[in-house]
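Exam prep: given the inputs below (a chain plus HDE), describe the expected output before reading on.
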Amino acid sequence: SSKPAKAAKNAVKTASKKIAEALTPEVPGAPGGTPTVEEPTTPHDPLPPKEEQGAPQTRTPTGAETGAPTTANGQQGAHLTTAQGARLRDTDHSLKAGPRGPTLLQDHHLREKITHFDHERIPERVVHARGAGAHGVFTAYGTAEQVTRAGFLKEGRETDVFVRFSTVLGSRGSADTVRDARGFATKFYTDEGTFDLVGNNMPVFFIQDAIKFPDIIHAAKPHPDREIPQAQSAHDTFWDFVSLHTEAQHHTLWNMSDRGIPRSYRTMEGFGVHTFRLVNEAGATALAKFHWKPKLGVHSLTWEEAQMLSGMDPDFHRRDLYDAIEAGAFPEWELGIQVLPDTPEETFAGIDLLDPTKIVPEELAAVQLVGKLTLNRTPTNFFAETEQVAFHLGHLPPGIDVTNDPLLQGRLFSYVDTQLTRLGGPNFSQIPINRPHAPVNDMLRDGFHQQAVHAGVAPYRPNSLDGGNPFPAGDDEHAFLDVPVTVTEAPKVRANPASFDDHYSQARLFWLSMSPVEKEHIIRAYTFELGKCYHQAIKERQLQSLANIDPELCAQVATGLGLPTPEPTVPLADVTPSPALSQVGGEWPADGRTVGVVVDPDGDLDDVAPVRAAVFAAGMVPLLIAPHGGVVGDLPVQRTFATGRSVEFDALLLAGAPAPAPDAVPAPDAGTTTVDPRVLLLVEECWRHAKAIGAWGAGTTVLEQVGVTDSPGVVTAGSGAQALASVQELMAAHRVWERFPASVA
Ligand code: HDE
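Solution:
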């Protein structure tokens, strides 16, 4: 090569060497320019594994423990390793050809780390994607022993459970408080096999036949072109579907009622929806409907609270559930059954028990309580447990069987099928959260993600090699019993029984069972939802269904929409209301409720500490709200005027009247008020949402400035203790109902 070319090459060499030197960080003790990270802690001995991280049952053909290495657990040793157990020197820098050079393909640690990350997400559930789960225990009262042979319902039996609550429509990241039905799925790990009770917080369903499920879900999910709205039923395709399928009207009415916006998972009922068939020791059968009754009563948010929470705290229900459990306020439900005679007609009081759009009013068949569920432990790992849990209606113990409800029959296919895609293969029952607590001794083998190391050579039967194992169990050995129900001879058809054509009578029953304030909320919900639809024909068609349910309901919604009120096209059903359907009128414990306490750091703080202690003593959670964070006196501040909003609190106490802070949002009436406008807003909202409000001392000034001093449920007291006592009394009714306007009787 020529001289000038050589000189140029050398110049480049020297230049790049200089640049390299300049760029090499001078880090002591780090040859090669790799900076060491200063660790916030020093390595220590491995933490003892948490109890729930212990060995899950490993499966052998005989159901015995294998003693094989168990599933790996996170962060239990001091040293970072690869997935193969090789200790690592550095996980923060990829292996490069020099500090500024390209990354080398040979960096196996980089590739392992990124590859695993790339595959961290699994498909979300096609419905019920957004959910929260918790562990607990079910204790049987023994009151179901006459009707079912199920061992877990025998007196005193304790069974581990995992419950997952969910919304139906939204994606995994959607808000908790949207208007929707809620899933209430319970896995009972019974010693006779797992029982999954996969229910909802509403006792009826939109459709009568599983074959329509893809259709209703396509209609209810976001529109396929723009993928909006998320987790909402207030859109054209939903109302198009339900107005064209009038069998959906009963469930739609439940969704439009306060049941569609629960205050908490802890204050929801649960329902198995379908009719099941129970069989006792003697082989006698009964039909049954399952109910979950919350110890705290059934309570809801107001629509405005629900909407505000979607922005303020989209995780409101999840947080509420986990906060309650961690605080020791364990949520409880009682399991109840309505026991109905197993007649050939499969009807009760004229109600077709195979029609999942119908309830049996509790006044006609009492709900008999058979056990208690207590949720007492939050998941250790959300993904491993709540995401990977797989429910299935076909997970039945001996003593509980299915009926011919065509919705139930289709579900028996769907739940296993969907897990094949969602959990990636047929071995999902080997995932720790899904492992039965009963010994497993199946002849299922191989497949993706096989976790068991099956011994033996003869997974078939009969066989003469594995000692003949396994053998079928006899009737007296806890075998599952397919109840030998007579199947009547009938032509093969795609058709429903005639009784399924009654689409309005029970919707009317529900409407007539509501109190005036609940009716008002229903009217407003329909007016909101239909008001969000663009197509006039859809609104008109839905109004027609409302006319067939109740003319007054229809007229009020029509007025709100500015549309004429149609005449009913069917005779109005003559039904007897069911008072058990109303949420209003009782008194309940206020365990785990939140009480906001507004304090003024410059005011009189004498009563604050005792009031706070008294709220705790009452099993509720006091949250101090102050102009700034940190402490007021020596009490910790949980919410500031910037971070807190009324929707977090079930009741409000005003211990002071904080003056406007420099960072307060300017209010139009500034100058006429002496209180921080954010406190005025807090009180206004609590008042509008019919929450109990109590004030003493300077706090009463706030009430005066909002103009609510003499309003129902607003208490002015001489001391903090008195204010709390009155507020607590009001909270037993959940809300100050008389504060809501009601336009219907
Ligand atoms: Fe489900 N449903 N469903 N469903 N369902 C699912 O299963 C389905 C129905 C319910 O927390 C899916 O694992 C069909 C009624 C709950 O993991 C899927 C039909 C009721 C959950 C499925 C129904 C429910 C699901 C989606 C019509 C109340 C969440 C992911 C015949 C009694 C369970 C999955 C959890 C989940 C199908 C109707 C409750 C696709 C075909 C009625 C609580 O299999």
